[in-house]
Amino acid sequence: MQDHQDHPTLAIRGLVVRRGARTTIDGLDLSVAAGEVYALLGGNGAGKTTTLDVLLGFVAPAAGDVRVDGLSPARDGAAARARLAYLPENVALYPYLNGIENLQYFCALAGIRMAESAARDLLLRAGLQAASHNARTGTYSKGMRQKVGLAIAHAKHAKAMLLDEPTSGLDPAAANDFAQRIRAAAQAGMAVLMATHDLFNARQVADRIGILRAGRLVAEFDAHAVTHEALERVYLAHARESAVGEAA
């Protein structure tokens, strides 16, 4: 794992986000280096998706500095997004187009011309079996749609990938396969930030794990050093504190 403090691909310093009178992100410091997978754990309302939206340039910070490969998403959103791949919980594809056609279409939107042979190679690299390439994506499972999303990320030569609840709804075999694909993307030099509820997958795929509560990073772990039991204990303790705070 590379030194995440030395010119990280994703860098967040002192981030504050407000929605009206409510502070949703409160002084967040977080960085992800090339070749690293960072899992951001937290319950609903913790601020995980808002953090991703700031990196995408969809939400403006009230304070702090945010960089994507050195660019500010708030000031240069299009250029910053060109360096990012984003996989939401449910990857939206055109259901009447097949896998190759979807990949070619989304590449064209990014100004990339994609030959059919190159599209097939990228889909195979992302784990989509050749027999599915010509099938309409309306017939795809969630895991298959995610693989098209991964192929788009590789086609863009994205510097970083943002994932929002990527394993929600996947069976254990599909979740394990997806984890291997994410590790391969990181090993190829991509920085990966994954927002998730899934403690098991976080330990399986990540290098570092952070716990976000009420917009604050309240704990951080080396994923290879923390046990599942210790991670679960800390995560549940913060979840209980959040519940008590909301009730009060």
Topology, please?
Blueprint lengths: L9 E10 L2 E11 L4 E5 L6 H8 L7 E6 L8 H6 L1 E4 L11 H11 L6 H10 L16 H15 L3 E5 L7 H16 L3 E6 L2 H7 L2 E6 L2 E7 L5 H20 L1
Parallel strand pairs: 3-7, 3-8, 5-6, 6-7
Antiparallel strand pairs: 1-2, 1-4, 8-9
Helix pairs in contact: 3-4, 3-5, 4-5, 5-6
Shape: globular
Oligomer: single chain
What proportion strand? 15-25%
User: How far apart are the termini?
Assistant: 41 Å
Helical amount: 25-40%
Characterize the main sheet.
6 strands, mixed
Strand order of the largest sheet: 5-6-7-3-8-9
Question: Can you tell me the residue ranges where pLDDT is under 50 for at least 5 consecutive residues?
Answer: none
Radius of gyration: 18 Å
Mean pLDDT: 90
* Beta strands, count: 9
Order of helices and strands: EEEHEHEHHHEHEHEEH
Structural class: alpha/beta
The DSSP helix count reads 8
Relevant terms:
248 residues, 9 strands
Would you give an account of this structure?
The protein has helices at about 50-55, 75-80, 100-110, 115-125, 140-155, 170-185, 200-205, 230-245; strands spanning about 10-20, 20-30, 35-40, 65-70, 85, 160-165, 190-195, 210-215, 215-220. Helix 5 runs parallel beside helix 6. The protein contains 8 helices and 9 strands. The strands form 2 sheets. The protein has a 6-stranded mixed beta sheet with strand order 5-6-7-3-8-9, with helices on both faces. Strands 2-1-4 form a 3-stranded antiparallel beta sheet, covered by helices on one side. The protein has a domain at about 90-155. By secondary structure, it is of the alpha/beta class.
